[in-house]
């Protein structure tokens, strides 16, 4: 292995020299966060995520995890998403390890309930979301983060839609004075995946305000799947057995003169010698050989394992005190993300008999070995050729703009204290996608049509005397690499897609004291919000028309608006009495009126009880909802080639008399056999594209959340704090898209004509040639578990100060039903493709500081999982002979995984800090899974067999 440590060494040397020069030139420089503002506009009371009522007590009736900037900087990560996806309550979500199916975005999913059910706020205000309702955390630069508050409870009564699983509130830097320069340089131990960041933050205080500006740039390099053993083949452990049948050599689907496919294939071998003058290479049928697995293609090695991206951001935040009681606040942010994914060259094919398209090679093509000019019978050829000459590349350029302007203040009335704010927020994200490597099927059809060798020695489209201009004859029957650049330029095209998401909101809030009760002052909060959400997806014209080799899709566009009002009350019931040093009750409710589905009211109850000083008991009950996002409502039709089993097929094992009768009534003959891309094979991928689309009649999801917990801070063990919380979430009317098999079952087994109307069959052979798949409010989800947080800060000793922490989440239940009357499916401890359902996740931290030196050790734990084994009897799975009541039920165990990270830092005398760190110290390999879509491990795990080495330097002025 190659270790590019010179880059780190040079960076450290440069940082130390730069810091020393600064000290010599300026003397001891001072830079730190400014002390708290003591003017009347600064309040001793604080607002904690989950409540709009400010309080002097940071502990609330709801569990809130706080990650301050110091804790974040000890992890050696370069994005907000990486920070959040390390917390124990985080479930699987999209990130940079998603190559096929990724788009450069990163999200956060609390409780395994989906990113769309986790609300993301920035400074207590909603951030721009995508068309699917999720927030891309890569649009929020880590350079501006002061702390992150994670509310692990439902909060629709306070914040509205999406706050079902919890709330992420990212608090940005404020009241900063001085200057700070920060850089991070890192790479994996194999010498790839380089990361470079540079941040500069400036802040100044005046007599009546403060202004902060931050500039940052993050560059994250790629790791290729072929450069790690575990991901270098499609399925680790099976080698070439799982290589793609879409070879990089030209492949012929063998057929007789009448065009009937006989089930065998021929291929042009790599050593075939072309025939024809002037480099116009064609290959005769006598040069082909029978296809075998030796010609299968290893597409995995061509893919990214870790996708590259760069992020550039500028942030500005300011406050100006108009009076001692009224202040103007404003902030703005611009963030640009450029990201990329790469897949192996397109597996291009043509021929109606096998592929369901009309791009078979004409019998009159110059390159057709059955051309009558060569003594052939002029048959059309079904063919395939993987275009390894050009990888498929998907690029995104995402520009996010945020602005907020508002006023805030406080006043006293009737010996009561009140605070208020009013403001306008504008968020917009513009995305331009470039897609390289797909084919223009119009040109492919023309290129494999009739062609001939003209008298000038050039092969041309058409026939002698009837040349088709601007057409380049295409020869897919070439060995690997044999497709010429001229052919590629003709058949390939670059797609340009545009997306936009936009949100505008007006908010006004008032909070304060109502009246004095024996136990204290009753507090309240009232607020209104008016918001409009809009967005669109405008695919390339060729994509929308369905003229590409990839899946076509129509445009998406839509908007909705809403008006909301909420109220919250905090009631102190008891204080300083035996058995109740404190007892508080909180009540909240929010009314929301949406333009698309109507109105909804969601309420919440919480309590906080301190029976004695060391112990706090807390609990809550909350209603929640998630409004359907723009994509759910207005999605344009998009092609998808689904794998399914047709229950009308004679080889379907579960055909009942009812199904058989209904199939016959639909005109399907009793001897009908389903045909797929694998030939006449039950349960395979359809040869015709089905359509996914939106549902303008979709309604909101609803939820009920419960928590009960305790916070124990024993006076006899100063510095120790224990938090234990039980939680439960029930979701009803969850949005889900019915599968093909479900639609067919509802039509033929249940006789529901509404589902029968969603698909059609070809009249000549009764194959299903179209189906509409759209989201509906169908499903039920129940999740339950426990969170444990331990924190112990020891007293200062002669050997320094030690701090230890443990944060763990235990999932005791995660059950779902596709419909309310469907069978309950339990997911806890199971692995599903890109959806690991860990029973236990935990992080342990040990921190030591002694003077200017500090060291942090972090351990990240993922419990074991089991998955269904797709290769029983091959010896790959841990229990491939397992049986249950239904017969063979092979399983594979994914072992528990623990990663260890270490960071050492030193405070330099010139107000600088240098940090050296290694993540995944022991090069832990992710557990191998055979259900994962790619790479043989889930993308939630670290890059296998790799240490991540980094250096950070911070200089303050």
From TrEMBL:
The cross-references to Pfam families, in alphabetical order and at most eight, read: Plug (PF07715), TonB_dep_Rec_b-barrel (PF00593)
Signal sequence span is: 1-31
- In terms of one coarse class, where is the protein primarily found? membrane
Subcellular location field: Cell outer membrane
Name listed for the protein in its UniProt record: TonB-dependent receptor
Regarding the membrane, this protein is recorded as: Multi-pass membrane protein
Q: What InterPro entries does the annotation carry?
A: Beta-barrel_TonB, Beta-barrel_TonB_sf, Plug_dom, Plug_dom_sf, TonB-dep_rcpt-like
List the Gene3D superfamilies: TonB-dependent receptor, beta-barrel domain, TonB-dependent receptor, plug domain
Quote the PROSITE patterns the UniProt record gives. TONB_DEPENDENT_REC_3
Q: So which domain of life are we looking at? A: Bacteria
Q: Which residues form the TonB-dependent receptor plug domain?
A: 58-167
> What is the species of this protein?
Novilysobacter avium
Name the SUPFAM superfamilies on file: Porins
Chain ranges of the TonB-dependent receptor-like beta-barrel domain: 493-921
Keywords (alphabetical) are: Cell outer membrane, Membrane, Receptor, Signal, TonB box, Transmembrane, Transmembrane beta strand, Transport
The text of the family note is: Belongs to the TonB-dependent receptor family.
